[in-house]
């Protein structure tokens, strides 16, 4: 009995693509197909390995603290994580969870988020919310500002145990990371990816004011955020909500810090130029300022204004020549 031969199996599309690619490379490089069979899989494997390494370092690797963050992340990347504590009314600590729950954080074995203070030591990133300044709480014997507790409770209720995205802007001098922070909206808008800017929420509800420092002001990566921040502050001021509803003379957080000489006070040369960074000789008459900063000190003092107070120009005496002579004499001996 005559039968038809069985039909040929369909050609694998990947095999056809590979054969076409091999023929093209052989024509371009004048290499025999047998050599292409060795080189092409090696190149493909190396490219796949490099791609996986890049994806891990940029999207899946967990960074425990601010010092571990690569410099190229700033102004380019955002960190996704869970807020584990709120220490002040404008900063908090973030436990970095790359990939979120999709990568098993919070439910998969080995991906548990620590809760105790002992476990979190050295494992969280100190985040400073960009563009806003909230009333200062009591620290190191300094009294708290009016409405500081209300602002702290507001931020605690808003962020604690929530997942947020912090867009990295810069690292400040206190090892904190200045970030614009966003949280998902509630309901269907949040499911669609719409978010609230935390700084804008605080300004709208009168829990903070626009940051008024003279150095290192940040308002986020998006254009026009400073305008939105100032408009929200003016609206809250007009409605007299939060800090704008306080009775009596209002003292801003910046004025409070300047009065007590605390963090983030007005710009002074000693906060920018340090002895270690400059490598210069120490200057007599100005504690903590090196000889490299002496021209800056003289320029500021010559105008008669340091921290808003009139002072006489300091006497700058640099004993570089005498020290050099002493060192030279010791070498000769």
Automatic annotation (TrEMBL):
Membrane topology: Single-pass membrane protein
Pfam families referenced in this protein's UniProt entry, alphabetically: SNase
InterPro entries xref list: SNase_OB-fold_sf (IPR035437), Staphylococal_nuclease_OB-fold (IPR016071)
Transmembrane segments: 38-56
A Gene Ontology molecular function term of the record: endonuclease activity
Primary site of residence: membrane
Keyword Nuclease: yes
Subcellular locations according to the entry: Membrane; Mitochondrion
Keyword Transmembrane attributed: yes
Any one annotated GO CC term: mitochondrion
Ranges of residues in domain TNase-like: 77-246
Keywords: Calcium, Endonuclease, Hydrolase, Membrane, Nuclease, Transmembrane, Transmembrane helix
Domain of life: Eukaryota
Homology family: Belongs to the LCL3 family.
Protein name per UniProt: Probable endonuclease LCL3
Organism whose genome encodes this protein: Drechslerella stenobrocha 248
